[in-house]
């Protein structure tokens, strides 16, 4: 660093592991020993870092290692789905301390769902008063800066609702809200891929279809938070299916879990849920596997366009449908590698989610921590 590093910037070095001793900090920042000592003392006093046992010595007295204090607070988070919501408390490293899943119909509206979330957080907190921030992922397009729901895939009654002030009335901390697939993409990238790549496309295939884009290591939200809304891109030869948006043959209307169930019922299959479809796939039912694979091909058609446009290093498929149905993943691969450009697919990987359902709550926690533990926020809190 060419200028004097602030305490907040020193904390980032310690959190990232780039500098774990006072000598490291001096080497990386160019700060004098007294200046390093002053910033470290400030961070120690505020409980943001702790001193670990003595590190390995290269001769002489071993250096004392500095470590970010992950137990210095908690982050309540929730990742809302159409029918099921994951609720958790995370530490300051984004690790889950407690978690509970609830069956919640988000279409009951914010007046029902948000109080239920807050009551659940309070039960998990059990009297703790060290909340540093709250994170929420919702199945809707979100204007991130304001936390306003702009349009919703499955929760129309939420449109126009500004969520943070409602939660902040009870919890006087920063509240961050984003699209559900964005937070899943953040969690998957940071935990699984951040050390090796900066560009990732996460596609969630569940009741509905959506995507989250990691570009240059950060989430790409677009001008109004609508980046990644691939569900309403039409496919060829979709059969004229009317989508809820009013258009025909949107990929959401022909390749989602809802669409697969509808198609199999039309073919006379007695399927009430995706678990029933899974049973037919495992039994080798040829017609069911054909329906699922065709859904994958339609999805691959849309993803191939995104691959040509964004050139991600990896496409990650998550959500109930992608995680349960290998024929769908195979259909996606078949079309993407055939229809995307040779350069875009030269080293492209198409993989299933490794974090699975937990990616959403991890992403929510990391979203909050990136905000409240940023160098600017840490320095502002010291004033």
From TrEMBL:
The keyword Transferase applies. Keywords: Kinase, Transferase. SUPFAM superfamilies: Actin-like ATPase domain, Winged helix' DNA-binding domain. GO terms for molecular function: kinase activity. InterPro entries: ATPase_NBD (IPR043129), ROK (IPR000600), Tscrpt_reg_HTH_AsnC-type_CS (IPR019885), WH-like_DNA-bd_sf (IPR036388), WH_DNA-bd_sf (IPR036390). The keyword GTP-binding does not apply. It comes from the Bacteria. Belongs to the ROK (NagC/XylR) family. This is Sugar kinase of the NBD/HSP70 family, may contain an N-terminal HTH domain. It comes from Microbispora rosea.
